[in-house]
Amino acid sequence: MPGTFGVRISPEARRGEGGENQVKAFFSDTFQWCIMSKDIDFGTDLWVMPVSDEGIPSFVVLGVQVKKGASYFRHPKKDEQGNVIGWWFGFDANHEASWTNGRIAHIVVLISNEGTMYWSKIKSSQIDRSSRKPKILVYKDHVLEKTDEEEIYEFACSTYEKSAFNGVVWNGLKNIKNQDRIRLAMLAPRVIAPHVNKHIDNLKGHEALASLLYGNEYGLEWYWRAGSGSMADAAMQKGKRKDEAWASSDWCWKAAAAFYDYLDGQGGRLDELFSVAKSPEEQAASAVMQFAFDIDDNDWSAALQHIQAVMTYDLYPVDKAWLLVHESWAMFELGRKDEAISAGSNAVSLCLQNPDDITANGICGAAMRLLWQYDWIWGNVKSSGKQVDVAEVIQSSDNPIFWWLELGERSIAGNAVSNRWLHSIGEAEKTHSLRRRFISLILQAAFLGDRDAWKRYCCLQAENAYAQIEDDNEGRTDIVNVLEMFRRCSSKDDYRKVLRSAIQRASDSRIVEYAETVSLNESTHSTALNDLTLFQCIGDYLSADKADEVCLWCLTTMASMREYVRKVSATFNIPIELFKTLKACYRAANRDVQEKIEQWFLELPGVGESYASEAQNLTILFPKSFWGDDNLAILLQRCDAGSLQQWYEYKRSSHDEESEAQWHVKVKSGQVDVIKSVDDAQKLSEDEIRRVSDCFSAYCAEAIASYEQSGVIAVHGVDHMLSAFLFCGYAHPELVDWDSFAKLMMSNAEALQDKRWPLKFLIHFSNELPDGIREELFSMLSCFVKSFEDKANIVYWLAYEAMASLCEDERQNIIDYLISNKRYNAVARIVQRFPAERYVQLMVTMLKMGPAGMCDTAAGALTKLELCNFGGVIVTETVEDIMANGTLAQKEWVAEAVIEFTEEIPARMRERLIALEDLVGSSMRKALKEKLDV
Fold it and tell me: Are 49 and 388 spatial neighbours (Cβ–Cβ below 8 Å)?
């Protein structure tokens, strides 16, 4: 570029930078490893770190020395025949000391002018020191390729230093400083607690505390029982010793006594520990202990206050770092991200200044994991290409990268806790013992400040409690506590699964009462998404006042999205979740709040593609009064996403007075997608019905021919052509081509999932078709199930349900076949549609002995039997018990059967059903009320 002046970059410098970029690209793109930034020069060109397929860092670091250009290939080594086998790479003694000090493994990569990369490990055993400078041979056949990843990873791990405290360390640590003993007991109880089988004559306070935290409370019990006789004497002696421990001047003995009471379900003394702490180390330990109990109550503000109350004291540096980790965690949960980052990085800095303290290494590891989770040190490496900024974190240290080595191990609590838990998996333990073990796991993780481990162990505890409830129907009283455990720590999917199960299992309104105690204004980072999920699952059952509160909160949050993101550090799509929550609570809300939602939607500047479907699901609930010409004009003009615009067009055509004639024109022209219901089909003339049938026949012939010629399977999701045909077939069965429908069902031309809709249609409506058509369809389905290969598929069983609807003579045989294959829900649904005296005992047995889902459908069938006056006293009493004490899901099945019943409701049921109105979801409540008011 003539005329351009400035600093000239030499070819050598350009080659060096290009070489590093080439190696960076290889490790990042081919190995999918993380490239760490290098603002501080440690004598190594690149720092790289292996990352798992899920994007999880290994915290194992590899140094890479990169050299490019012909000058690095000037010293070849040849074999006896004169062929080049490699090149010597020389370096000075300082680099040798840096690369081979045993802390972090290094490799060298030489890049030719053609771009070929040759590599070699830099190991002391391979260095040739016969010349003036040390050198290493890089072999010609050692070209850097994808297949080298495993070997390079193993080499990176080969110098990775493990904690000196791995293994059995029950002889105790010697010469523990007084200021460190409590912290060690709480963070590394394994190295403090005496062995369970070791006789101790003079147990120290911090050893007793460590024994309890490590799960060895029985060793302490034996110590307390020494010299006692009978079990009564032993119990009294234990109580006496606990009181003596609490009266001790040693804070650790007080903590041991209080913690022992906590394990027995008596936590009264824990609150006093904070006030009796005197020395700096006691104050720090008591604040951390109180923090753990505060977050167990989901009170993050109190947890932060307890930590900050001690921060002003003259603390030892590691204790200060210990408190900073917990301060960082609490601040992040409360939405104070910048302060959380500052506290976390300060904790790291203090730990780096105390490299000989094993608890400092663990605290440092916990702090770094917190910072990584805050998306500050790590972020989304694979999608965003962010780099770990070493220089920003490490300000000063004798060995500024040693913590990478200890970080992955974190044996202080992480490994010691998880190994002890994993060792016991599968053992048959009593509930009380298992509860103590979970408490030990959760508290050790909380004491360390390891948010990830704490959530993991809380989830394990919740899953264990949930499994016990699943196995024991009498344990339903604990379901609310289990829900609260899942809300605080589990994923959205796990929480939703448990919530739906709880709604089925709960025998009264406890789940609703639980939901009404949850405030969205108090959400933290960990609970924000689960709080919304709770109301998405339970919204239909909420009281009008609570539904109003949730809906108005959603509208306020939509208007102040940034503030909500800051408060909870949200990582989910907020508009989608808020639309789902509004939809779930809309029907339960009062009409004035519903109108506010409708007005808010009308005034939106626009709806994007990412949440258009959720917005459409909400607007489907809006009443007819919303879809007037003025509102539709506004919505059509604002250019929402495509699916919403189509919905507006449909609503306009549905409400346009002058469009009736145009609608018929569309049907005659073959636009059958305008037929949305049976009511639409009943408005058609015979010619229009035949037109729809002809269009459907042509479609079937084309789809079957296309499949036979090219094997292309049509996947619709929603097949408007098939829907229009079935609506018309129900309204005018004698005018449509059922043969084409049978051919399409028997063909593989349509995707299997697209056959569920027509089968469900036949299940509900086929019994009203003429006998000849029913026989034809039954024959078709008989062939359909005989040719079906995957009997586990729901389509197979739906076909049998449809057959039971089509043929009364075969109904009992079909029911027997379904029972033999344990398809009890299908049996109950058939009985609900076709009640008979002979099914009474079967349904009563299913209700009493079946699992939750089966009991629910049996409740609907029994209600239909009662409405039809089958079964006598046994059915009457059973249905009354369901309405009084059944689960929420069972009560909804009762309501559904009543709503579908076409005759007058028996007087004996009306009183119970009126009381049932307030217990079912709002979407069903209105229909039930209208039924009872008739």
Answer: yes
CA quadruple 695, 698, 702, 705: dihedral sign: positive
Q: Does residue 695 contact residue 721 with C-beta atoms inside 8 Å? A: yes
Q: With the CA atoms of 880, 884, 885 and 889 taken in that order, what torsion angle do they form, in degrees rounded to the nearest 10?
A: 90
Residue 55 neighbours by CB under 8 Å, 6+ apart: 380, 381, 382
The whole-angstrom separation of Cα 663 and Cα 674 is 7
User: Residue 713 in 3-state DSSP?
Assistant: coil
Query: Are 196 and 218 a contacting pair, CB within 8 Å?
Result: yes
Neighbours of 500 (CB within 10 A): 13
Task: Compute the distance between CA of residue 611 and CA of residue 818 in angstroms, rounded to an integer.
Answer: 41
End-to-end CA distance of the chain: give it in Å, rounded.
91
Single-letter amino acid code for the residue at 279: S
> What's the average pLDDT block by block, 10 residues per block, for the chain (934 residues)?
36 53 88 71 77 70 89 91 93 82 82 93 89 91 92 81 43 68 83 68 79 68 50 44 80 84 68 82 91 87 92 88 93 86 83 73 79 55 36 33 33 36 42 66 84 82 74 57 86 85 68 88 90 92 92 94 85 90 93 94 84 86 88 86 78 61 81 84 91 91 87 64 90 92 88 85 88 92 84 85 92 91 89 92 85 77 92 90 84 88 83 80 78 74
CA atoms within 13 A on the CB side of 328: 30
Chain-centroid distance of CA 378 in Å reads: 21
Distance CA 100, CA 862 (A): 79
Torsion of CA 467, 470, 472, 477, to 10 degrees: 90
Beta bridge partners of 743: none
CB 416 within 8 A of CB 210: no
3-class SS of residue 63: strand
Site of tokens 């002809």: 694
Structure tokens at 41: 């020069």
Exposed e or buried b for every residue in 704-724, given b needs 16+ CB within 10 A?
Answer: beebeeeeeebeeeebebbbb
What is the rounded CA–CA span in Å between residue 424 and residue 214? 14
* Whole-structure pTM value: 0.63
Give me 614's structure tokens.
């959720």
Q: Give how far Cα 851 sits from Cα of 472, 504, 824, 829, Å.
A: 11, 10, 10, 16
Beta carbons of 489 and 455 less than 8 angstroms apart:
yes
Distance CA 214, CA 25 (A): 46
Of 408, 412, 358, nearest in space to 60 by CA? 408
Q: What is residue 121's three-state secondary structure? A: strand
DSSP one-letter string for 286-307: HHHHHHHHHHHTT-HHHHHHHH
Q: Nearest 10 degrees: CA dihedral of 502, 503, 509, 512?
A: 90
> Cβ contacts of residue 924 below 8 Å, gap of 6+?
892, 895, 896, 899
Tell me whether strands 46-49 and 34-36 are parallel, antiparallel or unpaired. Answer: antiparallel
Q: Given this model, what pLDDT does residue 773 score?
A: 92
- Report residue 316: phi and psi, to 5°: -70, 150
Give Cβ neighbours of residue 167 (< 8 Å, ≥ 6 apart): none
Beta strands 62-68 and 106-111 are parallel
Task: Using alpha carbons, select from 676, 542, 555 the residue that is nearest to residue 620.
Answer: 676
Q: Are 82 and 76 in contact (CB under 8 A)?
A: no
